[in-house]
Amino acid sequence: MNNIILSFWKWYQRNLALNTAIAAFLFLLQLFHLYWLFTDVVLTRLTGESYFWLDAFWGKFSIFFDYTEVPAIITTSLLYIHQLRQGFNGKALFFLLLLNTQWLHILWITDEYVVTQFSGADLVVWSAALAWVAILIDFLELPVIYDTTRQAIAEIRKGRVPNPEG
User: Fold this and answer.
1) DSSP tag of 9
2) CA separation for the pair 11, 80 (Å, rounded)
3) 82, exposed or middle or buried, with CB in 10 Å at 0-12, 13-18, 19+?
4) What pLDDT does 116 receive?
5) Strand ranges (DSSP E) for the chain?
6) Which residues contact 160 (CB under 8 A, 6 or more apart)?
7) Which stretch of DSSP H or E encloses residue 159?
8) Please, how many CA atoms are within 13 Å of residue 81, restricted to the half-sphere of its CB?
9) Which of 58, 61, 121, 138 is most buried, with most CB under 10 Å away?
C-alpha cells in the first residue's frame, strides 16, 4: 500500500502543472455559482431586489457548477497536501483548512437551506444566522480560487506542462 501511495505522489509531482490547472479550472467554475449566490440570493435578501441579470434558467444552471465543487475540493486538497509533503507551509495548511470547511456547507448547510431561509417571511433568528454562516463558508473559496489559479499560471509559465508526444 505504501508503494502505491509513493507512486501516486511521484506521478502527481511529474504532472504538477496539469494537476494544478485541473484544480484551478474546477474551482474557477465556482465563480459563476458565487456570482449567482451573491446577486440573486444575498442582494435579494439585503435589498429586496435581485441583481442577477440572467433569466431563471441560469440560476438553476449554476447548480451544475456547484456540483463541480466536490472534485474541486478534492483536487485542490491534493495540491495543498502535496505542498505540505514537501515541507511545512503555513499558507498551504491555512488554505487546506479554509478549503475543507466547504464540507460543512455541502453536507449540512446547503444552498437550498439558504434560499429557503431567505425566502421565508418569518425567519427564525438562528436559522437566518446559520444561512449567513453558509454563505460566508461559500465565499471562503475565493482566496483558494485565487491562490490555485496563481499557482497554475506559474506552473504553466515554468513550462512544466506535460508533452503528450513524449
Assistant:
1) H
2) 16
3) middle
4) 66
5) none
6) 16, 17
7) none
8) 14
9) 138
The amino acid occupying position 35 is Y
- Residue bearing cell 451544475: 64
Euclidean distance between CA atoms 72 and 79, whole angstroms: 11
Distance CA 113, CA 119 (A): 10
Place of cell 439558504: 114
User: pTM to 2 decimals?
Assistant: 0.80
Mean per-residue pLDDT of the chain = 83
Q: What is the CA radius of gyration of the chain?
A: 18
Q: Is 160 exposed, middle or buried (0-12, 13-18, 19+ CB in 10 A)?
A: middle
Decide if 149 contacts 27 (C-beta within 8 A): yes
3-class DSSP state of 82: helix
Q: Where residue 126 falls among pLDDT bands split at 50, 70, 90?
A: low
Structure confidence at residue 166 as a pLDDT band (50, 70, 90): very low
Phi, psi of 50 (to 5 degrees): -85, 135
Taking the CA atoms of 106, 109, 111 and 112 in sequence, report the sign of the dihedral they define. Answer: positive
